[in-house]
Design goal:
With 276 residues, the protein is α/β, with parallel strands linked by helices. It is built from seven helices and eleven strands. Helix content is 32%, strand content 17%.
Length: 276
Amino acid sequence: MSLRFTIAAAIVSVSLGAVASSNLITGDGGRAGTPADLSKFNMARIIYDSEGGMGEAYYAYDSRVWARWETDFPEGDDNFGHRLSQLTRIPVAKFASSRMLTAPDLGDFPMLYMSDPGYMIVSAEEKTAFARYLANGGFVWVDDFWGDAEWQQFADVMRQVLPGREWRVLTADHPIFHTVFDLNDGMPQIPALPFASPGGSTAESPGAHKFPAGSLDEPQMRAWLDDDGRIMVLATHNTDVGDGWEREAYGEWYFETFSTKSYMVGVNVVVYAMTH
């Protein structure tokens, strides 16, 4: 049975109750002013700053310059929202939003999504706002960072936001892998489209990531938990779920092989977050 058929079947069966580069670094992607529709689930992307210059805080790709925070945005986030509304009965806002951690309405979003944080830095005000959001029940999903150096950068940020807490690996028997779709092998590895080839490795090239990259072969789902065991921050490491969403129309092979898995992960994460 193809993954496409699996997703198509789930649409029927799943039922739930409920310009200048300097400007790009601190820009809003055109979506920071989009108000939250409180009657629906809103896919909301975190805007953050990164350290370094070209190839670090921002990079050139596909005839434009991207800030790290906006990788795959907004197409990937919009595509996921559309598929989420098809695959579940969750009412979803048509367009994704973006927000800085200090946004006054951050608490209107029960879940926030962050991408490519391998060079991320946060101000004192952002650390306080981030910690407050998590303490008030918020859930943050962090995706698309590879290797040891990029992980260490984000883990250091989290040590400032959640001092005294450390991450743990979520193994394949954790309920998040079985909330809607059964991902019995645990976290799938989704390479960005330029790194994907039939029969090739699913790990991205070390040269495309922060040095020292270390191991990029093993995808993992990692998490920071509160005192009651609730996931506050979920990280999908050594994998690029967001590119699976953004690039779903870039050929049947990529869709069948990777986009379907990306949507399975995304649906599981949202349903788990909204029910825990």
